[in-house]
Design a protein that fits this description.
The complex is a heterodimer of chains A (208) and B (256). Chain A is α/β, with parallel strands linked by helices. Chain A has a single domain, classed as Rossmann fold (3-Layer(aba) Sandwich), CATH 3.40.50. Chain A has six helices and 13 strands. Chain A has a nine-stranded mixed sheet with strand order 2-1-3-4-13-12-11-8-9. A two-stranded antiparallel sheet of chain A has the order 5-6. A two-stranded antiparallel ribbon of chain A has the order 7-10. Chain A starts with a strand and ends in a 6-residue tail after the last helix. Chain B is of the alpha/beta class and 256 residues long. Chain B has eleven helices and twelve strands. In chain B, strands 1-4-5-6-7-10-11-12 form an eight-stranded parallel beta barrel, surrounded by six helices. The longest helix of chain B has 11 residues. Classes of the chains: A alpha/beta (208), B alpha/beta (256). The interface between A and B is medium-sized, with 35 and 34 residues.
């Protein structure tokens, strides 16, 4: 299977690539829409901030490609957050007066800072996820623990397929058609995370 | 519910895992990749690799093993040891480490914390604090603890430094309580609680775990997010699966 990891210039892509390799897949890492267009599955990882990853998306002219792609696409962490309608993670010092920056708008809900009295941020560590039996969670029990590492999260909405709680309930996983996203890091979530990645690859119907 | 984390710490020197008592007299414990694989398989929630020589010698960690570890384990891990620049941090993260932990270089140049947080996000930046309770009961920060000849007491009181590193962008704090290190008599709960009261980011307790009860105390009495230990795991005194079953049985939220 042709698997590509989308390089937006802000991410640490090796962790995701290494996880794919443990599942015997050899992903290609690229920011070139022509290369990415040949993939049967795409992963959109993200480290940094919503604005830095959106800048990377625009610099590489990937916005049009990502929003129109038809093959299964999995956003991870920040990669999932920029699939939402907008992010509250406005750059420090930005004086645009806007409380949200625009993101890709692929799934319902907006990305907001996690809130709760005395809540320690980042939300870091293993937390349990309740899911709606979407194929991404095939064979994964309710309440399974995944590794999280974030301070912002997508609110619960029509596309939510997994829920986690930290101070508040938020979207741990989202899906709409071929677009999927997980707030946690499946590449760092032990055997459960590997199962989820395997499930994602199987959605292409063509796993080597 | 967010689970409390159990973190084996692998002190690395010259490419092998070592462990000493109170930061001295190191003995070889085993191969980095093999130990990493073993702990991940046994249910460790995260790993820390701490190059105890690097800060003192003014050089960075040998980076090749970071990639080898990242290839084999599927849980998060942090790398510490003499990381003095954004470039060094970038290399280590690019090899597949999830976090970088800085200690002595943060004391040399506190601005480094902010630079790293801006560049890689706060959740990649752990600040390690070597804290020593002196004869008057004061908590003081020590520097260059990897080399007993160079170890010095800084002007920072531990609680002030805890506040400072948070202001500068630390995403997590590891509190190494040096009086307890390697003694296996339990964490310094009084100190841990004092730090916890000021710490708004995840807090990792380190130094002194010897019995399963010590982990329970760290989590329940001092409200640490994670408990770090080395010798009890390396020497097989506590098995991680048993520890997790014990804690779960006592009502602590633990990942299965």
């Amino acid at each position: 299977m042709r698997l590509c990891i989308i390089d937006t210039g802000s991410a640490n892509l090796n962790s995701v690539a290494q996880a794919c390799q443990r599942l015997r897949l050899q992903p290609e890492i690229s920011s070139d829409p022509e290369v990415l267009d040949k993939a049967q599955a795409l992963i959109l990882p993200g480290v940094g901030s919503a604005s830095s990853i959106m800048r990377g998306v625009r610099e590489h002219k990937l916005e049009d490609f990502i929003t129109k792609v038809k093959v299964p696409l999995l956003g991870i962490c920040l990669g999932m957050q920029i699939m939402s309608q907008g992010s509250e993670e406005v750059p420090q010092g930005a004086d645009t007066g806007e409380s949200f920056i625009p993101t890709l708008g692929l799934v319902a809900g907006r990305t907001q800072k996690l809130k709760g009295a005395g809540l320690r941020l980042p939300h870091m560590g293993w937390n349990s996820v309740e899911h709606s039996d979407h194929p991404l969670f095939l064979g994964i029990r309710q309440g399974a623990f995944f590794y999280f590492d974030h301070s912002y999260a997508v609110e619960i909405g029509d596309c939510t397929i997994g829920v986690c709680e930290y101070g508040q309930r938020f979207s741990a996983a989202l899906a709409r058609d071929n677009f999927m996203g997980v707030q946690f890091h499946p590449e760092k979530s032990g055997p459960v995370g590997e199962r989820l990645l395997q499930n994602f690859f199987e959605l292409t119907g063509d796993v080597a | 519910m967010l689970a409390r984390r159990i973190i084996p710490c692998l002190d690395v020197r010259d490419g092998v895992v070592v462990k000493g008592v109170q930061f001295r007299d190191h003995t070889v414990m085993g191969d980095i990749v093999e130990l990493a694989r073993r702990y991940a398989a046994e249910g460790a929630d995260e790993l820390v690799f701490y190059d105890i020589t690097a800060s003192s010698d003014g050089r960075s960690v040998d980076k090749s093993w970071v990639a080898r570890v990242a290839e084999v384990i599927n849980i998060p891990f942090a790398v510490a040891g003499g990381i003095r620049s954004v470039e060094e941090a970038r290399t280590i993260l690019a090899y597949g480490a999830d976090k970088i932990s800085i200690n002595s270089p943060a004391l040399e140049n506190p601005e480094l914390i902010t630079q790293l947080a801006d560049k890689f996000g706060v959740s990649c930046v752990v600040v390690g604090i070597d804290t020593y309770r002196d004869e008057h009961g004061e908590y003081l920060v020590k520097q260059y603890t990897g080399d007993v000849k160079r170890t010095r007491t800084t002007a920072w009181h531990t609680l002030e430094w805890v506040e400072e590193v948070q202001k500068r962008g630390a995403g997590e704090i590891t509190l190494n309580m040096m009086n307890q290190d390697g003694m296996r008599r339990g964490y310094d709960l009084e100190q841990l609680k004092a730090v916890r009261a000021l710490c708004r980011v995840p807090l990792i307790a380190s130094g002194g775990a010897g019995e399963m009860e010590h982990f329970y105390q760290g989590f329940v009495e001092a409200d640490a997010d994670a408990c770090l230990a080395a010798s009890v795991f390396h020497k097989g005194l506590i098995a991680i699966p048993e520890l997790k079953a014990y804690l779960k049985n006592k009502g602590v939220v633990i990942r299965d």
